[in-house]
Amino acid sequence: MCIFMFSHFTYPPPTIAMGEQVEETKAKELQIAALEKQQILEFESYLAAASTKQTITEQTSLLLTQLITMDPTGPPRKPPQAVLEQLQSLNSTHRMGHLLCRSRHPDFLLDIIQRQGASQSMPWLADLVESSEGALSHLPVQCLCEFLLSSGTLLQPEKQHKHQQLLEHLQSVLTDVKQDPQAPCEVLEYFLRRLSSPQAASRAQAIKGLKLVLSSVAMEEEAMEIDNQQDPNGDNSWLLRQLPLLPHFRAVRPQVVQALRQACQVENDPALVSSYIYFLALHTTHDSLPELADLVLDMAQLIVERSSIIAAILPATDHDIPGALSTQNALMLMFCSYLQKAREPRREAYTWSESQDQILVTWSTGEESTMHILVVHAMIILLNYGPGQDLNLFESLLETWFPLGKETPKAYLVDTSEEALLIPDWLKLRMIRSNVDRLVDAALTDLEPPQLVLFIQSFGIPVKSMSKLLHTLDQAVTTDPLSVGEAVLDKSYMAQLVEVQHHRGATGGQMLVQVVQLEQPRLPDYSRLCSTTHRQTLPVTALSNKDGTKVTDQTEVKQVASVLLKLFGSGTLEPEWNKAEKQQAFRTLQKTLAVELQQSTGEKKTLNSTIVFFNEILNSTRSTSFVNSLLQTPQLACPLLRLMTTAAVKTSNQEDVVQSIISICQDIMRISAGNKSSVMTIVKHFLRKHTLKQEQKSQVVQLSSTEDPLQVLQQSPILKLERTGQLLLDEGLKLHNTEKLVEAMGRLLLQDTTGFPAQTDSISSVARPERTGLLIDWLASFEPELIGSCTSLQMQLLFSKSHNHQTAVSKSGSSSTQSCRPYLLTLLTHRASWATLHHCLQNLLNECDQKYDPTAVLDFLWALTCNPKLWQGREKFTPKHHSAEDILGLTSAQTLALVGYIVEEALLTVRESETHLQQIALDKMESRLPLLLQCTSGGQEMAAVARYLVDIMSAKTGTKSDIAHQLLLKLYLRIPGLIHHLVDVELDKFLAGACVNEWSSSVLDGMSHTLFTALTATSQSKDWTRRSQEYELLARKMASVHPILVLRQLPMLAATLRGRVHLDFAVFRSRNHLNLFQQVVGILELLQPHIFLQEYSEGLEDTLRSYFALFKYHGHMKDLLSLLNRFISLLQGFISYDAQRALKYLQKHAHVLSDLQIFHPNLPSLRTLLSGISLPKTDEEGGEIIVAVAAPPPAADPSPVWTPRLASLSKMQGDDVYTALQELDHLSSRKPSILDTFCEPISELLLSPTSNIRTLAHVLLARHLRHNPAAATVGTSLAAFLRCLESDQADVLNTALERLPEIVLCAQEHALPLLQKVFNLGMCSNVNTVPHISKTIALLNVQTGC
C-alpha cells in the first residue's frame, strides 16, 4: 500500500526506513532470507528423502523460488522484482495510489502518519504534496500540517511555491469565517497536541508551525488591552494576541485550554509556561466549576511538583524575574475564581470518589466545598510569595485560609468523614520561611515540641520568623519542659544553634538553653529544716580528714548532714519526716552521688560532704545511736554504703578518699560489736579486700627486690604459687616491666611440657605439670599475642619437639605433643596481630627446620587459613563453584618448606615393622592436602612442588623416598595436570610403582565414569556414530595421558560389556555393539603396559572374558577379523609382560582359540599365539613353564617402497602429492599406525594452497591424532595447525577452523591458548569463529556430563 501511495517501487519504501535505516533494513531482510532459504532446503530435502532420495541444493531446488514464510504479524518482506514491476504497471493504469490517498474511510494516509509518530521525519510527504494534482483539499489536514513542520526552510527554490501555497491554504482554513469550525479545530489540534510532547524539538516545531499559520491574523491592539507589561514574553504574541482573534476561537478555545494545561506539566521554558498561565487566566475565569476544578488541579500540580519551574516564573526576593508579577497575578486570579464558585451553595450532593486526595473543606461561616488537597497546598504556597500586583486578590485568598479573628477552615476526608490534616509539616516549614506575618503565626499555632525542635534546625528561615519560633519554643519549655528535653537529642548542638541564631539577630531561646544545658543535679534546699537564712557558697576545697586540717564547703556539708540526720535518726529540733519524705530525700541524695561517680573529672562535693559527716558523727557521742540506726534501716544504709565503697574503687588514685572510707568502715565494725546484718556484710567485704592489698604490697616489694622471678616461681610451693605469682604480676604491671616475668613463665612452661630444663646451669630443675595451668593463664594475660618479648623462647615453646622426641614415638603414631599446645596455638591465632602472625609464618617457613614439631607447624598454618577474622563480613553461604583463596600467599621457597613439613610429619609416624602406622601416615598426608592445595593455586608453585618431591624420590633414601612418592601420587589424584611437569624418565619412574586402585577418589573419576557410561550406552539413533566417535576420542585422550587413573574404571568397563554377545550377529552389529567392542579394545591398547599389573588382573580378565565370549559365539564371522587381530596383539603384549600369569589365564580359553584357528587357518598371529599354549602343562615339581612364544616384531623403518612417496609429500601441491595422500588414506584406514612415519610431511601440507590436498592432509592428521592422542603435544602437528590459524589465506584458515574441535580434544593441554587464538581471530577479523568455539566447548563439556 505504501508503495502505491508514494509511487516508490523499491524496497524498503520511505515509510519503513530512511537514511541509515535503509541499509539496516536490507541487512535484516538478507538475514531473514538466508534463514528462510535454509528452512526451505531442509523441508525439500525431507520430502526428497521419502521419495527420490536426491540431495537438494540451491541449484536443484524447485521450491526455493515458490515458497515464503507465512507470518502476517512479522516484519515486512521484500517482494520479488517481477512483482514490483507488475505493481508499477497496475498503478499507472488504474491510479491506485491516488485513490488510496483520497480514501477517508479508512484514512490510510492518516494512519501512516500516526504510525510514524511525531518524532519521525517524513521527507516522503514533500513528494506526496508535490505530486498532488490541483487543490490540496483531497489530502487530510494532518498530512498538510506534517508537511509544513517537516519541510521548514530546506525546500529547494523550485518547491517554495508549493510550500507557500500550502501555508496559504492552512491560513485560509483558520481565518475563513465561512469555513466549517471542525477544520480549524483539526489544524490547531495537530499543532497543539505536540506542545505536551516529551521531546523539546517536537514542541519547538509545533510553536514554529503555529506562528506560521497564525501570522496572517491581523492584531488589533485596541480590542486586546495587552501591553508589554502585561505580556510575560513579547515573543509569544501568537498565543496572547493572534490566536484569540480567530473567527472560530470560541469553538477551538476548549481545545486550546486543554492543550496548554497539559503543556504546563512538561514545558521547561519559563517564558512559555508564564505565557500559558497568562492565557489560561484570561480565557478560563468564566468557565463552569468542573472545568475550573480541572484547571486549578493542573496548576496545583505545577506549583507543588515542579518547584524548579515555579522558582523561575514567580517573584524572588534576591533577584528580579521578568513577568513574574503578572504570572503570580494570573495564578491568583484563577484560584480566586475557583474559590468563589466552589463556595457557592449547591443543591446537588458531592458524588463519592475513590480518590484519597479529595477533602471536604468547611469554613466557620458555614460554607463548605469539596476540592483536591493539592489545590489547597498550591494556594498556600502561592501566598508565601507576597501580595504581588493585585492586593485585593491576595487579601481575599489570605482571608479565605487564614481569617483574622476567626477559626481556620477544617478539612474532612470525603470517604470516611475523618478530620484530615490540612497543612502538613513541610508546608508549615515553608510558611515559616515566608515574609508574610500571618502565615508565620498560623504555622506556629498548635505545634508540638518535636516539631518546634525540628523546625529550628532547618535552614533558610528569616531572622524575624526565627525569633517567633524561639519565643514559641520558650513557651513550650515553660508549659512542658520534659517533652522538649526528650525532643532535643543533641543538646550541645542545640545550644550552639541557638547561639548562632542570636548572632544573626534573632531573639528568644533563653528558656530553651536552660533546659538543654546539662547541669549537675543539686540537693533540694532543706533550709526550712536546718536554717532559714541564706548563706553564700564558699569555694570548694579538698576533703577534710579527721584532724580537720582542711576546710570544705560548709553549706554543702550542712545540707548533707541535715539530710543524713533526718534519714538515720533524729538529732535536730525540727519535726521528723514521714516515710514518703524520707524516700524522696534519699532518692535525691542517691542520684546525686551516682552522677558524681559517672564523672571522671571534677570535684565530688556530695561525696566529700558525706565522708565528712560520717567522720564527725562516728567520733562524737552519738556514734552508737547512729550506727544502730544504720543497722535498723538497711534499705537505706546498704545503697549508701555501696555507693561510698564503689567511689573508693573508682578513686583509688586518691589515697585520702580510700583511707577515709576505710576508717569509716573500721569505726562501724568497732561500734557494731559483731552484729550480723547486710550492712555489716558490705563493710566486712570492703575491709577484707583493701586491708589484704596493703599486706601484699610489702611482700611484693620484698620479693621483687631480692630474687629473680624465675627462682621465685621455681622454688614456690604449689599451694603458695598462685599468691606469689599474683604478687609478681601486680608489681610488674605497676612498674611496667614484665619482660623478665614473661621469660620466666615461658621457661617454666617449656620445662614442664617438653622436658627442656628452665636454666641451663640448673641441674635440679624438675618438671611440675601441676602448675602448667597457672603459668598458661598468667602468660596469656601478660603476653596476649604469646610472641613478642622473647621471640625465640616463645617459638620454641609453641613449636619445638619434645626432649625425647628423637628417640621415642608415641604408640598412637604421632609425636608426643603437649596438652597445652593446642590452647596456646589457638590463643596465638585469635589474639595476635597480622604483623605478629606474618613474622611467625616467615620464621617457620624459612626452611623445614628439624627442631620444630611438624604437626604443630601444620596445625598452626591450617588454623591461619580458618581464622574467623578473615571471614568477617563475607557471605555466609559460599557459592557452588567457589574456589578456595590463597590466604597465606606463600613464596615458592615457603611452599617447599611446607611440603617438607608434611613429609617430615609422615616420616616421624612410619615404622617399618608396623603396617598400621604406614596407613596412619598416609591418612595424615591426606588430611594435609587441602592446606597444600590452597597454597599452590598457580601452576608454577605446583611444578616446583612436583620437582621437589621427585628429587626426594630420586635420592633413594628409603622410607622418605616412599613417602614422597605416596604424597606425589595423592597430589596427582587431586590435580591430574601435575603429570605434565615431569619429564619422560621421571614419569616412567613415577608410574612404575603407582597403584591407586584402592585409594580415595580422584577428580578424574567423575569425568571418566561419565565418559565410559556414555560410550557404552549404545543407541540406534542416526547421530550415534558421530557421538560415539566423539566419546571414543575423549576416552582415548584420557587413557593416553592418565592411564593409571582410567584403570580405576576398568571393572565398570568390564561390567558394561556383558550381556551383549549372545545376540544374533546382525542384531549385535545393528545395535552398534560391535563398534563398542572395537572402541574398547583400542582403549585397552593405550593402557599398556599398566593394564597388565597384578593390581588390575581381575578387571583385565573380566574384560578379556567378554571378548572370548564374543569369539565363541561369532568367531566364524569374517567381520571380526580386524578385531581378532587387535585382540591377539593385546594378548601377545600380556604374555610379553607376565608370561606365567598370562598363559595360566589363556589355558582356560584354549578351546576358543583352537576353534578360531579352525575358522581362520590363514591367520599367522593366531597360529603364533596357539603355538605357545597348545600343550598346557604344569610342572609338578614347581618349576616354571617354558613357553616358546614368538615376540612381537619390532617396529621397522619405513619400507623402501615409501621413499618416493615421502619425496612426493615434501611438495606443497601437484597431482603426485594428492595421489600419495590418497594411497596413504587408503592404507591408514585399516592401519592408522602407518601415519607415525608421515606425520611431519602431512603437517606441512596443512598450509597447501590446493583445496583437496589441504583437506585430505587435515583428515589424515585427525586420524593420526585419534589413533595416538599423545602425539598432539610432542610432534610438529600443533605448530603446523597454529600456522594455519595465523595464515592470511581465507581457505587455509577456514579449513583449520573446521578441524578445531578434534585438534583441541587431542591437545587438551594446549586448549586454552588455542581457543584464545581463535577468539582473538574472531575479534580482530571478519571471520565468524563463534560456531567453531561453541562446538569445541560443547565437546569439552561432554567429559563433565554437561
From TrEMBL:
UniProt-listed InterPro entries: ARM-type_fold, INT1_R3, INTS1, INTS1_INTS2-bd, INTS1_R4
Pfam family, one: INT1_R3
Start and end residues of each Integrator complex subunit 1 R3 domain: 1004-1162
Domain Integrator complex subunit 1 R4, chain residue ranges per copy: 1209-1306
Domain Integrator complex subunit 1 INTS2-binding, first and last residues per copy: 186-511
Name recorded for this polypeptide: Integrator complex subunit 1
One GO BP: U2 snRNA 3'-end processing
Provenance organism: Cryptotermes secundus
Cellular component annotations (GO), alphabetically ordered: integrator complex
